[in-house]
Write a structure and sequence with these properties.
By secondary structure, the protein is an alpha/beta fold. It is about 40% helix and about 15% strand. The chain folds into 2 domains: about 1-185 and about 365-380, Glycogen Phosphorylase B (Rossmann fold, 3-Layer(aba) Sandwich); about 205-360, Glycogen Phosphorylase B (Rossmann fold, 3-Layer(aba) Sandwich), CATH 3.40.50.2000. It contains 13 helices and 15 strands.
């Protein structure tokens, strides 16, 4: 099949879970012998090359976010326009299009461009937001518009896919016609990083991700300080950067933890892998996760995970309490959860890696990609 994947970000030129997911899908389709085109925007200084995948930039905005880490409307509209223009001019070049519903304007662009064609379309939903989330994120006016566009996009999804039961339920509530393809999971089996089921000393907490409001990274220093009351030699490394980084640093300084918590920012993949592998626990206080790839990466090397319950946190679906980590009720419970996980030592590290070994046999990115492809192939055959 001739498949186009439409997303305005491409890993590793832009980093994030969604970026890695769609790159993984593209590679899975190419490996299976399909002709793959990745429709994105310019994010590079030199033309990127990915073996087996044609990369086509349909817009040129370098920055998608404002100073507060909120996606802005202009780049989204320009990408959607470029996407629609490309697909309209090449409507006979593709058998199927997988389009990310982030943002929802992508869906409208693809449906308009391919109206009347025989191209099968899957709309992939990394997340489905409540109306109040949109208003809080984008303001009362644009937030209402974004919420309405999401509702329309759900209605216009011929085939829909998502990656958690949470967002499958929200899609159905949004008026999706038919059943969404809920992926088996997004595990990325790796053989280049050795698991570590031994306890390392002194124990260390790691956080991996962007520093934005939803991630609540600034709550980590207080949790570390509380956990140190029972584990005095506990240290932490907070990887990543973002708009709330200044607040994180300020909280570290306020609590006198500059010698305890390091904040190296974004680092090489090798350094990040080793940081997770040698940590006692990975902690993510985020209130919103569409899936949570870093949870899987951590479990792959035997490092258990602590998350926080939340109406918008689909990552908690990956945690089996006492098997591969814990889920705190609130951010106020992070310190106690950290102590609990570390106290379980090698037994929990072994069961964490065993969990990963079990789920990685079937719940892979390629398996999810092929689930979607099967539905697209059926649609193409019907047409």
């Amino acid at each position: 099949m001739r498949i186009a994947i439409a997303f305005d970000c491409l890993f590793p030129w832009t980093k994030g879970g969604g970026e890695r997911l769609y790159r993984g899908f593209a590679e899975a389709y190419a490996a299976a012998g399909h002709e793959v085109t990745y429709l994105t925007r310019v994010q590079w200084d030199e033309e990127p090359v990915i073996e087996g995948i044609t990369i086509k930039a349909v817009s040129k905005d370098r920055n998608l976010y404002d100073a507060n880490g909120v996606r802005t409307l202009g780049p989204a509209l320009r990408y959607s326009y470029g996407l629609a223009k490309h697909l309209r001019a090449n409507r006979h070049k593709y058998d199927a299009v997988l389009v990310s519903a982030v943002p929802s304007t992508n869906v409208l662009a693809v449906r308009a461009a391919l109206l009347g064609s025989k191209v099968a379309i899957d709309v992939d939903w990394l997340e489905v937001w409540r109306p109040d989330q949109w208003r809080a994120y984008s303001g009362p006016v644009i937030g209402r518009v974004a919420g309405a566009l999401q509702w329309i996009a759900a209605k216009l999804s011929p085939i829909a896919s998502c990656h958690s039961q949470l967002h499958a339920r929200r899609l159905q509530a949004s008026g999706l016609r038919g059943d969404a393809v809920v992926s088996r999971g997004l595990i990325e089996p790796r053989d280049d990083v050795e698991p570590n089921t031994s306890v390392t000393s002194p124990p260390r907490v790691v956080y991996v991700g962007r520093h934005i409001a939803d991630k609540r990274v600034e709550t980590l220093p207080a949790a570390i300080a509380e956990a140190r009351e029972q584990i005095p030699d506990l240290t932490a490394t907070i990887f990543g950067e973002g708009q709330s980084r200044a607040a994180v640093i300020a909280e570290i300084e306020r609590l006198g933890l500059r010698d305890v918590i390091s904040t190296p920012g974004f680092v090489s993949q090798e350094e990040l892998d080793e940081g997770i592998r040698t940590a006692a626990v990975l902690v993510n206080p985020s209130q919103r996760e569409g899936y949570g790839l870093v949870v899987v990466e951590s479990c792959a090397v035997g490092t258990p995970v602590v998350l926080v319950e939340g109406d918008d946190n689909a990552a908690v679906e990956l945690i089996e309490p006492g098997v591969n980590g814990q889920v705190a009720k609130t951010t106020a419970g992070l310190g106690a959860a950290i102590v609990d996980v570390i106290s379980k030592g090698e037994a929990l590290r072994k069961s964490t890696h065993d969990w990963y070994t079990r789920v990685s046999k079937t719940n892979t990115v390629p398996a999810s990609a092929m689930q979607i492809l099967d539905r697209l192939a059926q649609a193409t055959a019907l047409r």
